[in-house]
Design a protein that fits this description.
Blueprint (H helix, E strand, L loop, with lengths): L1 E7 L15 H21 L5 E6 L2 H9 L3 E4 L6 H14 L4 E5 L8 H10 L4 E6 L6 E7 L12 H11 L4 E3 L3 H4 L5 H8 L6 H8 L10
Parallel strand pairs: 1-2, 1-4, 2-3, 5-7
Antiparallel strand pairs: 4-6, 5-6
C-alpha cells in the first residue's frame, strides 16, 4: 500500500520569507495555492493508494478532505520532522508499506512525476529528490514506510543519504526539475511567475500582478 504524506504549516506561519514581497494575506494565499497544486497532483497519481495531509490548519484540512485526501490532525505545529513522524505512524498503522513525503511548496508537481518516483523505488530502500539548489530534500520515498527517520531542515539531502547509510538501506537519487522547484524566497516566486503553468499558484501570481506582461498575439 502506497501512501503519500503532505506536511503543511498553518497558513499564518507558512512561507514567511515571502513576507518581504507580499502582505500576510497574499503570502497565505500563495501558500494555499501551492498546497492545492500539490494535493491535486498526488490525488490524481495512479500509483498511490492514499494521500494524507498532516496539518493543524482547518482551512488546509478542509481542502484536503474535499480533494479526497485524508487528514492527520497535528494538534499544534510540531515542526516538519515531527509532523512527518506523526503522519508516518498513522500511515503505517493503516497498512502502508511505502510512504512518500512531498513538501507543500512544489507547485509544478505532476501526477506522472509521482508515478515515476514510486516506480523507481527499490524495496527495501529510499529514493530522494533534491531541491533545485541540491542541498534540501523536496520528496523522499521510504519502503518500509519508517525504514529511516526524516531529517528535513537545512542541508537535509546529505543528511538523508547518511541516514540511509547508517540504517544499511539502499538510497537512490532522482533529480526532477518540477519536484525540485520549491518556492521559498521572493526570487523563487518571481522565477515561477515568469513561466506560465496550469496551476493554481500561477493563477495566484497573476492575481497579485507578479506575472510579467507579455505582448499580445
Amino acid at each position: 500500500m502506497h501512501v503519500a504524506l503532505v506536511p503543511a504549516k498553518p497558513l499564518p506561519l507558512a512561507k514567511t520569507r515571502l513576507g518581504t514581497m507580499l502582505s500576510d494575506a497574499d503570502r497565505a494565499a500563495v501558500a494555499y495555492a501551492m498546497f492545492a497544486d500539490v494535493v491535486g497532483a498526488l490525488t490524481a497519481a495512479t500509483t498511490l493508494d492514499r494521500v494524507l495531509v498532516v496539518t493543524a490548519d482547518d482551512r488546509l484540512a478542509a481542502h484536503a478532505r474535499s480533494a479526497g485526501a485524508g487528514v492527520v490532525d497535528e494538534g499544534a505545529p510540531r515542526g516538519l520532522n515531527g509532523a512527518v513522524a506523526l503522519g508516518t505512524r498513522r500511515a503505517v498503522d493503516q497498512g502502508a508499506t511505502t510512504v512518500l513525503v512531498v513538501l507543500s511548496d512544489i507547485p509544478l508537481l505532476r501526477p506522472a512525476d509521482v508515478d515515476e518516483l514510486l516506480a523507481r523505488l527499490r524495496r527495501p530502500g529510499v529514493t530522494l529528490v533534491p531541491s533545485k539548489e541540491g542541498t534540501g530534500t523536496n520528496a523522499i520515498v521510504r519502503s518500509p514506510g519508517a525504514v529511516v527517520p526524516t531529517c528535513f531542515g537545512g542541508r537535509s539531502f546529505e543528511r538523508h543519504i547518511r541516514a540511509a547509510e547508517r540504517h544499511h538501506v539502499a538510497c537512490d537519487i532522482w533529480r526532477n526539475a518540477r519536484i525540485g522547484f520549491d518556492v521559498d524566497v521572493p526570487a523563487d516566486l518571481a522565477a515561477f511567475a515568469s513561466a506560465e503553468s496550469a496551476t493554481a499558484t500561477f493563477r495566484e501570481t497573476m492575481r497579485l500582478g507578479l506575472t510579467p506582461l507579455r505582448p499580445s498575439a
